[in-house]
Amino acid sequence: MATNTSMHVIKNEDPVIATESLANDSLAKEYFDKKQKLDEYFASGATQSLSWRKRQLKAVLSLLITEEKAISEALHSDLKKSQEEAYITEIGYLRKDVKYLLKHVEKWMKPKRVGTPLLAMPAKSIIRPEPLGTCLVIGAWNYPFQLAISPMLAAISAGNCVILKPSDLAPATSALIAKLLPKYLDMNAVAIIEGGKEETTELLTLNFDKIFFTGGEYVGKIVMKAAAKHLTPVTLELGGKSPCIIDKNVDLAIALNRMVWGKLINVGQTCIAPDYLMVHQSNLDNVVAELKKVLEKQYGKNPETNKFYGRIVDENHCARLVSYLDNQNVIFGGKHNIKDKYLSPTIVLNPDNNSPLMQEEIFGPIIPIISFSGRSDMLKFITARAKPLAAYVFTEDKEFEEKFIERVSAGSVCVNDTALFWVNPNAPVGGVGTSGMGRYHGKFGFDTFSHEKSILKRNFSFENSIRYMPLNKFKTWIFKRFLR
């Protein structure tokens, strides 16, 4: 059993935004003025050209190459990420992201010809993507560089101005973003606001053309409530408890290596990490034994000294995770040092379903294993809960695979692996239900920050008076023929 802790513990939701304005007049005026300047620059049309968009994207690519060391050092300071993990999950990911945007943005910008109904002929119909205006991007602390810059890139590729708010829980990365972006980007179109609850709350009083938020459900509701006052569209990239089924008769060594990679990268602080495992009771002992081997193989007998095993973002979050182990059946790990923000990879067997461990998104290196007597029970357990951001199944049974995909509603589903769908720019990432709304990545990010304006063009060469008043039986008959 894990020992009790008397430390103050917070839930897995940081009160980073107040529910109403904190009435800071100086901040309110400063932010209003910043946004107004961005609005004016957007209205000038400067951000709409292909050349402007490509210049900004190329500048970010140059930043990622030139400043790689500084970015890695900031991520190590905030989360003790290794240089290798920082590159794979943040710097390299963004390099691939921006190159994809550069390759495709010209095509995405072009108007698309669509069909026109006979009733409107002769005419042509066009859909033209246009930028929304000035957008607010609120980043997250778990991938503090990637989750701030990636949505900003999508907004810029669509021709918008952006106010970027990095997470204050990753102060080194936030400060670096504020330092670096002015060296590379057109700061007539971009503003960076650092700070915490007070700053974010004041920002949300402004009337943006789009808000993009990455974080948890609790704060997501506050963002949406603030946006509703201005009817501002929002994209909410949230999270949830992503299930992972380990079916019978799969190669456990491969399955659990893949699961552990997806679960423990960034020490479990990933919104799409497998949150809990579901295992048939006849296979439970085998899964537990193999999982212990895999954990030691990937992170060693003492993960605390392993450079590829980072740290929890702060002491409060570490204390929260340790508290989840109270009165649970901890069968592996559980070692912790809250001052060092360290918690070892930990396995909990059949946790109490009403405990915080199973009621809240874990966002840490704890792996609950739940045993079931049959597949139907597993699916019922998953579908009775809130819709997750991701759902995972390891199985060789194609019929069960299809049943899982059909029955389980989730932002994304991954079969026989974890998290890899995130690197595919051709597929959207986004939640459903309480795990979020809206989507981004690749073309989907461009679309998120664009409005598809429909245009109908006619000329004066043909005139038909059938639609004009007054109507008569013949005109009505014509309309009925076309409008069936």
Describe the structure.
With 484 residues, this protein is of the alpha/beta class. It has 2 domains: 25-238 and 436-452, Aldehyde Dehydrogenase, Chain A, domain 1; 243-424, Aldehyde Dehydrogenase, Chain A, domain 2. It is built from 16 helices and 18 strands. It has helices at 25-43, 50-66, 68-79, 83-109, 146-157, 171-184, 197-203, 217-228, 252-264, 284-299, 315-323, 356-359, 375-383, 398-407, 443-448, 473-482; strands spanning 112-114, 124-131, 134-138, 161-165, 190-192, 210-214, 234-237, 243-246, 276-280, 330-332, 336-337, 342-343, 346-349, 366-372, 390-394, 412-415, 436-437, 450-457. The strands form 4 sheets. It has a 7-stranded mixed beta sheet, with helices on both faces. Helix 2 (50-66) runs antiparallel to helix 4, helix 3 (68-79) crosses helix 4 and helix 4 (83-109) packs parallel to helix 5. The longest helix is centred in the first third of the chain and has 27 residues, at 83-109. The radius of gyration is 25 Å and the shape is globular. The model is unreliable at 1-11 (pLDDT under 50).
